[in-house]
Amino acid sequence: MTSGSAARPAARERAARRAAALARAVEDGLLGPRSPVVGLLDVDGVLAAVDALNEAFQGPAPVRHAFAAKACGLVPVLRLLAEAGMSCEVASPGELEQALAAGFTYDRLVFDSPAKTVEELEFALAHGIAINLDNFQELARVDRLLAGRPAAGPIGLRVNPQVGAGAIGAMSTATATSKFGVALRDPGAVDAVIDAFVRRPWLDRLHAHVGSQGCPLPLMAQGIRVAYELAERINDRLGHARITGIDIGGGLPVNFDSDDDRPTYADYVAELRAAVPGLFDGRYTLITEFGRSLLAKSGTVATVVEYTKTAGGRPIAVTHAGAQAATRTVFMPDAWPLRIEVLDAGGRPKQGPTEIVDIAGPCCFAGDLTATGRELPVIEPGDVVALHDTGAYYFSSHFSYNSLPRPAVHGYRTGADGRVRFALVRQAQTVREVVEESGLAQAGALVALRAD
Ligand SMILES: *Cc1c(COP(=O)(O)O)cnc(C)c1O
Questions:
Q1: Claim to verify: residue 281 and residue 323 sit in the same structural domain
Q2: Tens digit of pLDDT for each residue in 300-350?
Q3: Which of 265, 290, 315 is the last residue of a domain?
Q4: Is residue 232 domain-shared with residue 331, that is, in the same domain?
Q5: Does 194 map to a domain?
Q6: From ligand 1's centre to the CA of 251, what distance in Å?
Q7: For 50, which of 56, 173, 295, 314 is 20 to 30 Å away at the CA?
Q8: Where does ligand 1 bind, in terms of residues with CB under 6 Å?
Q9: Closest Cα to residue 44, out of 389, 411, 410, 388?
Q10: pTM: predicted TM-score of the whole model, two decimal places
Q11: Pocket probe mutation, ligand 1, options 132, 180, 209, 210, max atoms within 8 Å of Cβ
């Protein structure tokens, strides 16, 4: 492992930028009584992650890094990544349109979804968007849609190497019974996949995404090795290099314990090079689909403490960030613990005596807690609580429980003069919009149905 010293100064700088942005957000009123929860995103941190990714994979093999849009489906974020030279992995019509709106051209998209409709497949085929097919029924569907014509873009088949689960079952996509891809260890599956390639000249990629958060690097590398060996076997069988691209998915885990980037992309590539050396020799184009690891550590959810109280002797701080903004952490607290920082009403890190406290959100269910039993500086109403490392799958994956509005998201940069500049990424949803989205135009529909 090489994740040590080189990463640390960058991590310290990122923490310093975040501290400056939090103070400034309070000062500017981006966070306050009228907007008690916001998402903040460090633009330089995101671009540094893209650089680290490009650097780690540099080598003779051509590489296309596609950002997994579900990790942060915000158009300005996608545009930033498009400008930085990335491609984009999308898995729903909404993500596809977001990516197009962000400026990704068709040739820089990868369309994955286990449930692509005929219409979605037709769209992808018509525009030459790379697609990864999930199962044999989908292969047969594409046979019908192509009707003997060649494909305009790359078409891959997703395989499940069935190498097992990581630490979080719900995030592990290479278990024996995972819903994704063709399960290679099932009886007859490998022969059926080989046969599928023999019979379809347009099939030219293999895809494996072994899992997200919680999968150790050796397990991920083992899964990619299975896909690589299958590609070699298929190309041998066909007598030529039909499979020209291997899509290794995403899934680099993120360290939620500290500011350090651990593991790094370089760590993962070292692991891959050791386990699958042939992957990098230039015979295959590599496609990656990282999401969380590109964005998580550059994002912060910041919220104002509305009240403090005790129950059964336990101090509780009631904030405005709960299940709507930190869904996974609230519902699976053991799998998704977050670092919590307490700041004073001016947005400066709070010092002084500590207490063991629960941090609660605004939702009306008892489990709406972003942290329990944490030792933190004594919290008072008006203080600010920051949830760190929440740039992916948090403020961008809103959950509309209690009809809580989507909070605003602001990007930030620090100038040479140390001054923080903000750019609005997503406007806060208004209460009016919440009401409109909840069927306002059909307000009388059910009463009318009953009257008929
Ligand atoms: C979610 C997903 C990714 C991204 O995973 P991360 O853990 O965010 O890197 C990549 N590929 C596919 C197919 C996915 O479903």
A1: no
A2: 999 999 999 999 999 999 999 999 999 999 999 999 999 999 999 999 999
A3: 290
A4: no
A5: yes
A6: 6
A7: 173
A8: 68, 70-71, 89, 112, 209, 212, 249-252, 289-293
A9: 411
A10: 0.96
A11: 209
